[in-house]
Amino acid sequence: MRTACALLTICFLGGCEKAPSSDSTADSPEAVQQEPVEKKPQGFSKLEWKIVDKNKALEENPNLVEVSNETNAGDYLTAVTQSHFAATSRLNKATMEYNAKLSSFANSIDSSEDPKPLTFEEFDEQVRLNPNNMKGLYPWQVYAYDETNGTVTILEDREEKKRLHEENGLPYSEDE
Fold first, then answer.
1. What are the tens digits of pLDDT across the range 67-118?
2. How many separate domains does the chain show?
3. Phi then psi for 21, rounded to 5 degrees?
4. Any idea what the Cα angle at residue 99 is, between residues 93 and 100, rounded to 5°?
5. Which stretches does the entry tag as region Disordered (predicted)?
6. 126 lies in some domain
7. Residue 44 domain-assigned?
8. pLDDT tops 90 at residue 7
9. Which domain holds residue 86?
10. Considering the domain boundaries, does residue 67 fall inside one?
11. Is residue 11 part of a domain?
């Protein structure tokens, strides 16, 4: 057994590949030239989070659509990855809403009034002080805070999504 392990170790350390040839053909310009590599479409990486005031964002760009990141279980190859990001964005939204409600309750302890949702400025300041790692959104998505009821949603710019898909050579679907 020890002999077999020693032989395997020697093979791995010594390598099993052929030594480079010293032919003059290997140094010729024809050998150095490589065929152009076809550019493959790349996916989109998740970006750092961004929070906007929902009402102002919808005023400025009425084409924004409220979405929820979900899993398409019909595509079993990518369902696990989709589930990871869907769960991450839901957890981030729930965390931000919970912290906002907690802050509004803390602000109303001294008064006899019902707690009011935080303003966008208060919410934005509170979220930036909180060390949560908010990720899980595509470049065309943003977290949006609605100060009228204290909820957090995800807004998506479909035109930006289509433009980025076409730029990267990826198929575009509004359902994704």
1. 887 777 776 777 777 777 778 888 888 888 898 888 888 877 777 777 888 9
2. 1
3. -80, 155
4. 90
5. 18-42, 157-176
6. yes
7. no
8. no
9. 51-167
10. yes
11. no
